[in-house]
Specification:
Blueprint lengths: L2 H20 L1 H21 L7 E7 L5 H11 L4 E6 L3 H10 L4 E5 L3 H6 L7 E4 L4 H29 L22 H32 L1 H6 L5 H29 L9 H26 L2 H18 L12 H7 L3 H15 L3 H25 L6
Parallel strand pairs: 1-2, 1-3
Antiparallel strand pairs: 3-4
Helix pairs in contact: 1-9, 2-7, 2-9, 7-9, 7-10, 7-11, 7-13, 9-10, 10-11, 10-13, 10-14, 13-14
Length: about 375
Amino acid sequence: MTRESFKRIKALAWKEFIQIKRDPRSLGMALAIPIFMLLIFGYGLSLDIDHVRTLVWNQDASSQVTRDFLLNFKNSKYFKIVGYTDNYRDIQDKIDKGDIMMALVIPKDFSHYIESGKIAPLQLLVDGSDANTATIAIGYVRSVVSKYNVDLLTSAFRERGLNPVNSLDARMRVWFNMGMISTWFIIPGVIAMIIMIISALLISLTIAREWERGTMEQLISTPVKGPELITGKFIPYFAIGFFDLAVGVLMARFLFGLPFRGSYTLLIILSSLFLTGALSLGIFISVIARTQLMASQLASLATLIPTMLLSGFIYPIFNMPKFVQAVTYLVPARYYIVVLRDLFLKGNGIATIWDEALFLLLFAFFMFNFALRRFKKKVA
């Protein structure tokens, strides 16, 4: 790069900084939306199913056995007993209205079955309109019932002066996220989504705006070369993208309590690659669209939907159909989200995430070259 070329790039970058400063909408989008998205997703989106609203019909209410059994639900954070009833019609009405998620029906001879050593029947009525939540709630109930059965068996052995034999003692240890906090899983994906969407959308709009206002023709008529023009546009939004990354990391660490166990140097390097690819994608879109409306629609379509649905941000990729799994290999956010989660939670180095780093490098290289080749220094 010659000295004159560097001066032209510097002048273009400074012009773009001034333009961003004069455009409060773009500046607000770049600075406020990332914070807003992190707050909304961090506090509003949770994969944890807690406080399942439960209605109880205890037909054996006079028995201490049933009351002790229900304590397992009352003392659990996964259930919230919202009331009691004495008929099925009330249960049906509350499930239909969405007031409860499930109902527990204890038969009148429940304590008699338990005390006589027989299998006691127990009815569970669950709202299955949300299949995923219903499945998790049923799993919680099974866990409570299994624990209750183990306690009964242990108590029976002790009453006879015996110790349980050939029992299984499963001791679990959760790595990386001991509290099983879903926010720790979500926030790295939100950071990747912010960088991908905001970067591509902002830069695609600014270049499309140049075409709409006719100022691009003025730039084309100057001695500025195509690569210099692209680079000059690129630099300010690269700085904004890194500001958004810094905000995301700081909020993750100090607001949501995520640990950062990896290397900040590796985070900066790999984030630079991802940001370069995202900005280049925005430039490529703006060159194709040439109008702000079309650019915003294409940028949203190319970034929002794949990042939300096909990157593993919320939905696990291994649970998708095979042909959809194949498509996810073309989604850059898939690799960057793995990088962020590994750096935040696992503390892995380049030896573990080298394949993700390689794809991000290829993504940045090819998208930047595609943008340069597509942009022609001519009006039509």
